């Protein structure tokens, strides 16, 4: 019996490409046994578990430009560009409600990747409760250095999972997922460069030398993962869905129209490989 996994990298608002792909997959009933998400992938992938098609693009467009949701004002006031309370707790419980009962009843495994700031290593969290704890693990996975505070869970502190494991395909294979769909947010041929502002990172996180080391080596880790994904794709052990060209978007200040464009690119990419996806998941 095959176990089908969905592997979601991050990329801030480029993650709306993944949201578009996933909405098409949900509409077509593509069966998934487990999901592992990093950063934006963790934020948006939970909607696959609950089957909430369109939720990711809907609330992001609704609150684009809303100072309660995100902005440099929030960063100055709270230390988080994306307001921790409003974005991760008020929106999913009051404005665009996350379906907690369905999440908790689903047999689908949901894992998020965070970086342990003390060790610089990846922490893989299996999330089974769809309440405050889930939202905090997702926030930890998406807490980018410099623009977000560390998130403390169970006595440990965490930041963005992309620092330590950006594309956790190997992790899922080791968990027994022998057929995987990998959604990337960069086009084929992309290579990551050394992290900008590393000198600033070194000063800010000087008490966490292993974290700084992971940041300094992140581009090497990421590019090695891309090569691994390519090899697994050629061997038929995964299907990779990626943008056909670079998604030109910054981390901040993106308009609702730009969000829709990124999301639509994801829908288009998924539609092009739909027959292949169905055959892969049925065999």
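Sequence proposed for the structure above (283 residues):
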């Amino acid at each position: 019996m095959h176990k089908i996994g969905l592997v979601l990298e991050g990329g801030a608002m480029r993650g709306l490409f993944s949201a578009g792909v996933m909405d098409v997959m949900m509409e077509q009933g593509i069966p998934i046994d487990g999901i592992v998400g990093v950063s934006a992938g963790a934020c948006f992938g939970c909607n696959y578990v609950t089957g909430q098609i369109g939720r990711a693009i809907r609330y992001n467009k609704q609150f684009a430009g809303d100072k309660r949701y995100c902005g440099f004002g929030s960063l100055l006031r709270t230390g988080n560009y994306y307001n921790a309370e409003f974005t991760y707790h008020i929106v999913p419980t009051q404005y665009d409600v996350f379906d907690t009962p369905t999440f908790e009843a689903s047999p689908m495994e949901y894992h998020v990747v965070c970086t342990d700031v003390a060790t610089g290593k990846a922490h893989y969290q299996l999330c089974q409760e769809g309440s405050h704890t889930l939202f905090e693990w997702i926030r930890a996975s998406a807490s980018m250095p410099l623009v977000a505070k560390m998130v403390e869970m169970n006595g440990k502190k965490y930041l963005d999972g992309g620092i330590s494991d950006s594309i956790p395909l190997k992790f899922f294979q080791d968990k027994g997922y022998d057929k995987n769909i990998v959604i990337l947010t960069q086009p084929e041929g992309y290579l990551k460069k050394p992290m900008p502002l590393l000198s600033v990172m070194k000063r800010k996180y000087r008490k966490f030398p292993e974290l700084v080391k992971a940041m300094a080596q992140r581009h090497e880790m990421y590019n090695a993962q891309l090569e691994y994904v390519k090899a697994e794709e050629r061997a038929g052990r995964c299907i990779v869905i990626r943008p056909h060209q670079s998604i030109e978007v910054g981390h901040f200040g993106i308009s609702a129209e730009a969000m829709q464009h990124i999301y639509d690119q994801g829908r288009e990419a998924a539609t092009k490989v739909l027959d292949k996806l169905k055959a892969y998941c049925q065999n």
